[in-house]
């Protein structure tokens, strides 16, 4: 089982999306220099990891090709999350790297009205052309779409999924609830009835009578009526404690709390209580000091508290999560630089 390491390679992004949390951190957290990024690559675990390069927008980072070439030299598999607003011809050398396994595009529909969250140029058309060109010229690269459910797209979700899978030939679609960061985005958040209507469309689209199996991942709280949609997508081997087996590196080179900490409450109170999927042997995370920091002090790792989390990697109680790829009993700080 591979451990996923999400690395926010940069805070740079040419878009100005309504819902994006990254905007208010661009001035607070500066990107590190190329030599420091290469240092981080050299400190990544060499085996059983998959690096997700994100941001910001990784294609807006001038060091992207150098970082990806270094990952490829070390034979570390990686992928990128992008808004799709990049020049295909400029990155041909990147798409030919053997270690590049996937690209995930952040899109919310198939027309400009549905893409209301994404602000900054003709993003949809550029992304569509890039997806079709990748399919044609680099068929081995897996393509996914991260989609936020909004009041502008939930009514025709079936049509959107049909376009993504059968016309654009993407491999996977991940549908998530919108988490508003301001009043404008909040007005686009679906209510429970609208979410149920959307999930009914997903259920119909994934009808087993179809000749094709569609890979749709849901990150949505829903009623028991749609229990099967959630359950069939959960693979327990992919989970560590309360959440995903994922580590996180920010643009300044800090190791931050893994997804187990960030999402523990959602998985424990929603998934496990309703579907009894996570058994006791998956809860080793409850013994970690990191968990108690998050639970008792309600710390937000994006608000300058990163040093509080060094106990995850250098812990006086000598407790550790065996799945953590960065654990080192000699580590006294949670920076990789």
Quick description:
This protein is an alpha/beta fold.
Model description:
The chain has 337 residues and is an alpha/beta fold. It contains ten helices and eleven strands. Strands 7-6-5-4-3-2-1-10-11 form a nine-stranded mixed β-sheet. β1 (3-8), α1 and β2 form a beta-alpha-beta unit. α1 (34-43) packs parallel to α2 and α5 runs parallel beside α7.
Overall radius of gyration: 20 Å
Binned, the helix content reads: 25-40%
Strand content: 15-25%
DSSP E strands, number: 11
Weakly predicted, low-confidence segments = 231-244, 274-285, 292-320
| Distance between the amino and carboxyl termini | 27 Å
The chain-level structural class is alpha/beta
- Main pleated-sheet profile: 9 strands, mixed
Q: Count of helices?
A: 10
Elements, N to C (H/E) = EHEHEHEHEHEHHEHEEEEHH
Adjacency order of strands in the biggest sheet: 7-6-5-4-3-2-1-10-11
Averaged pLDDT: 76
List the helices and strands and how they pair.
Layout: E1 3-8, H1 34-43, E2 49-54, H2 64-73, E3 77-82, H3 92-95, E4 100-106, H4 123-137, E5 142-149, H5 157-167, E6 172-177, H6 183-186, H7 192-205, E7 216-219, H8 227-231, E8 239-240, E9 243-244, E10 246-249, E11 255-256, H9 259-275, H10 289-297
Parallel strand pairs: 1-2, 1-10, 2-3, 3-4, 4-5, 5-6, 6-7
Antiparallel strand pairs: 8-9, 10-11
Helix pairs in contact: 1-2, 5-7
